[in-house]
Structures are given as structure tokens and as C-alpha cells.
Design brief:
alpha+beta; 2 domains; 9-stranded mixed sheet; 28% strand; binds pyridoxal-5'-phosphate; binds 2-OXO-4-methylpentanoic acid
């Protein structure tokens, strides 16, 4: 194992183990640590044909006192169960989820990036339907797997502003939006617009609502947040975006800091009025957005650095995550 901790990006890197649970005969079995990445799967399995699959993303941090802590894992457990209910998959007891996350972190403890390197251990729980079938129906068997990857910044350049692109004129299954309807499941419909955005030099695609194409939904990787010139925090309210745990935490932090929070529909026309725009999520933390392109239109914000309000929020959330400032909301769970 020879990891250059400060050079980590957001790429797959094999670690020691992952933990797996099998659901059969109507119940979840015991978790078992595996030292390989292979899974035996029927070619007729539901997840391969019909995409019955859901995942989560959360992080563990090596803190200032050198203890390892996980950021709000119970929130991920609840959201995973919400995804599972939507997709007709069996729920995972919250205690089983937390126990699985802790067990796999403990077994891979040497992969948690050391305090001060800016890295974290990304935890990826995933549930897939495995029973062989050809008719469309819910699987009878499932695998719940939790794997871990040491990571650095999602977008190269750390917190340097990125450019985004609204991609809403292509013909695909989900014409706008990521198609998540609150579920972190199949992201395949977002791949083409993301590729188009990248081809135009934009790191990320920004989606509009699929009905009117006039309201901001979210980025392909994260929620949308913006700061008004008079310092209000604005983020879209929509039934078809993923309820981000980072965004929820940032809204709480904003209120702690005396920043007014507005969660409401955000029309594209309002993009001309914001002082700062950011993308927020577990992987991207807060990534400032320098420009948003939409056809010939360009909405421009801070191009060189993160704006002052986003920076204040960023410092507060990462300060809590790395144990540098008091965790007054009890978000960090010790191993
Ligand atoms: N929106 C999308 C489409 C995402 O993939 C993610 C990340 O999982 C988020 C938002 C942010 O959610 P969270 O802050 O819980 O990571
Ligand atoms: C996360 O932030 O955890 C996600 O799942 C987003 C994805 C782009 C990696």
C-alpha cells in the first residue's frame, strides 16, 4: 500500500475488503467481509436488465484528535431505505446499515486518509436485485454491499470554481432532470448530458425541471445552492431532486450563522441575480460554480475563488467533519 494522500482525486482504488449481506427467503443474512471485488451474478439478474439498484455515498474522516468519525450515517441509512421502498426492494434496518459501515471502515482503517491531507474515506453502500428473471417484477434475492475508497476532491483543482452547462435539448429517456425522483439509483440517463457538458469544457451538467424546462433542479452530481447579493441562501425545492444530506446540513449551518435560508422553486431567470453559486454534496462538498452556460447565455459568478459566503459555509462544515470546531449538532459518529 503506497498512497500519496494529498494527490487523491475521486477515483476507484481497491482497498482491503468490502462487506456483503444476502437477502433470501424474505430476510437479510449476516454480513461477511470479502477481500475481492468479484460477485457471482446470474446473467438474467434483475439489476442487469431492469436496473433494480440503489446506492448511497457518505464519508469518514480522520479528525484532529486522530479519531475516525462518520458524517451523519443515520441520514444515509434513512435515505437508502426511502430509495429501497421506491424501488420495491427490502429495507435494511438502520442498525445493520451503521454496523456494516463501521465494520468495513474498521477493517480498512489504514485506508482512511490521515488528518491534514484533506482526504476522506468515501463509503459506498449499494443494494442490487440478483434473482434471475425475464418478466418485469421485483427481485426475490438481493445483495447489500458496502465498499470504501480513499478520496480527495471530486473535481480536479479542489475548491477552484468549475463551469456548468444546462443540457436540456437532447432526446433521451429522461429529457431533463437526472431522473432520480428522490432515489439514488440509476444514473445512466445523466451520462449523455454530462458528456455533452464536458465536451463544452464544463465539469458538470445542470438540469432543469422536465415539465417546463424553466426551473433549476440540480447538478448531475450534487444539489444547487446560491447566495443572493443580500446574503440569503437559496436552494431549489423540487420533488425530483435528491434530498442532499450536505445541503440539509449547510442549511442548518447557514441558520446557525444568521443566514436566511430559502428553499423554493428557483427559475432559471434568477441565475442573473445570484452573487455566488455552488454545487453541494458528499463527493463535491461545496464546489463553487464560476459560470453556467445555456445555449448562447452565460451566467457568470466568482471565477477565481470561492465566494465569501460559500467559503464561510465550507469552512464550517469541513471544520465539523475534521473535528476542528465543535460538533454542536452531533453529526459526527465515532467508530
Ligand atoms: N444530487 C445528486 C444527483 C447526487 O448524486 C448527490 C450525491 O449523492 C447529491 C445530490 C448530494 O447528496 P448528499 O449531500 O447526500 O451526498
Ligand atoms: C455522492 O456525493 O456521494 C455521490 O454519490 C455523487 C456521485 C457523483 C459520486
Amino acid at each position: 500500500m503506497n498512497i500519496e494522500w494529498t494527490k487523491l482525486g475521486f477515483e476507484f482504488l481497491p482497498t482491503k475488503s468490502n462487506i456483503r449481506f444476502t437477502y433470501e427467503n424474505g430476510k437479510w443474512g449476516e454480513g461477511c467481509l470479502h477481500n475481492d471485488y468479484k460477485i457471482e451474478l446470474s446473467v438474467a439478474s434483475n439489476c442487469m436488465h431492469y436496473g433494480q439498484a440503489a446506492f448511497e455515498g457518505l464519508k469518514a474522516f480522520s479528525c484532529k484528535d486522530r479519531k475516525v468519525r462518520i458524517f451523519r450515517p443515520e441520514e444515509n441509512a434513512r435515505r437508502l431505505n426511502s430509495s429501497l421502498r421506491h424501488l420495491l426492494m427490502p429495507e435494511i434496518p438502520e442498525a445493520t446499515f451503521i454496523d456494516a459501515v463501521k465494520t468495513v471502515i474498521r477493517d480498512n482503517i489504514e485506508y482512511v486518509p490521515p488528518y491534514g491531507t484533506g482526504g476522506s474515506l468515501y463509503i459506498r453502500p449499494v443494494v442490487v436485485g440478483t434473482s434471475p428473471q425475464i418478466g418485469i417484477s421485483a427481485s426475490e434475492t438481493y445483495e447489500f454491499i458496502v465498499m470504501v475508497v480513499p478520496v480527495g476532491p471530486y473535481y480536479k483543482g479542489g475548491i477552484k470554481p468549475v463551469e456548468a452547462m444546462i443540457v436540456d435539448d437532447i432526446d433521451r429517456a429522461a429529457p431533463c432532470g437526472t431522473g432520480h425522483t428522490k432515489v439514488a439509483g440509476n444514473y445512466a440517463a445523466s451520462l449523455l448530458p454530462s458528456k455533452i457538458a464536458k465536451k463544452h469544457g464544463c465539469a458538470v451538467a445542470l438540469f432543469l425541471d422536465s415539465k417546463t424546462h424553466s426551473f433549476i433542479e440540480e447538478f448531475g452530481t450534487s444539489n444547487f445552492m446560491a447566495i443572493t447579493p443580500d446574503g440569503r441562501y437559496v436552494t431549489p425545492e423540487s420533488p425530483s431532486i435528491l434530498p442532499s444530506i450536505t445541503n440539509k446540513s449547510l442549511m442548518t449551518i447557514a441558520e446557525d450563522l444568521g443566514i436566511a435560508v430559502e428553499r423554493r422553486p428557483v427559475p432559471e431567470t434568477e441565475l442573473t441575480t445570484f452573487a455566488e453559486v455552488g454545487a453541494c454534496g458528499t463527493a463535491v462538498v461545496i464546489t463553487p460554480v464560476a459560470k453556467i452556460h445555456h445555449g448562447d447565455k452565460v451566467y457568470a459568478y466568482n471565477t477565481e475563488t470561492m465566494g465569501p459566503v460559500l467559503k464561510k459555509l465550507y469552512d464550517r462544515v469541513t471544520g465539523i467533519q475534521y473535528g476542528e470546531i465543535p460538533d454542536t449538532h452531533h453529526w459526527m459518529m465515532e467508530l
